[in-house]
Amino acid sequence: MSQTEALVTILVVAAGTYLTRALPFWLFPDRKQPHEWVRKLGTVLPYAMMGLLVVYSLKGVWPPAKPYGLPEALSLLFIFGLHKWKRNTLLSIAGGTVAYMLLSQQVFV
């Protein structure tokens, strides 16, 4: 890749990043109330994304083969319990990641 191509690539990526960050502020300034569908998306989308992440995380699990999905199942139970106990999303995500890594790399080798 030449220096010109690299520079153009960097500029396009920077412009795209800036646009995706600034666009919501341009479309929905403080003085203007967003549309009802935008507010509804704001309440529904977080749950939909969590569901999507769970499905994506479990797509490669094959219960008939060893380790039979146990690291994933135990990690999910740990995440649910931790979140029910502490009600902290970041703690649940971090704790679940650590639990899964320990189970998949140390316990169920």
Description:
There is one protein chain. By secondary structure, this protein is an all-alpha fold. The chain has 2 domains: 1-32; 33-107, no CATH class. 77% of the residues lie in helices and 0% in strands. It is built from 4 helices and no strands. Helix 3 (70-86) runs antiparallel to helix 4. The longest helix is centred in the N-terminal third of the chain and has 25 residues, at 3-27. It is flat, with a radius of gyration of 21 Å.
Radius of gyration from CA coordinates = 21 Å
Class computed from helices, strands and strand pairing? mainly alpha
Helix count from the secondary structure assignment: 4
Strand content: under 5%
Number of E strands: 0
The percent of residues in helical segments reads: over 70%
Uncertain residue segments: none
Q: Span from first to last CA?
A: 42 Å
- H-E order: HHHH
Average of pLDDT: 93
Main sheet properties: none
What form results from the Cα inertia axes? flat
Q: Supply the number of structural domains.
A: 2
Outline of the structure:
The chain has helices at residues 3-27, 36-58, 70-86, 89-107. By secondary structure, it is mostly helical.
What key phrases describe this protein's structure?
109 residues; mainly alpha; 2 domains; 4 helices
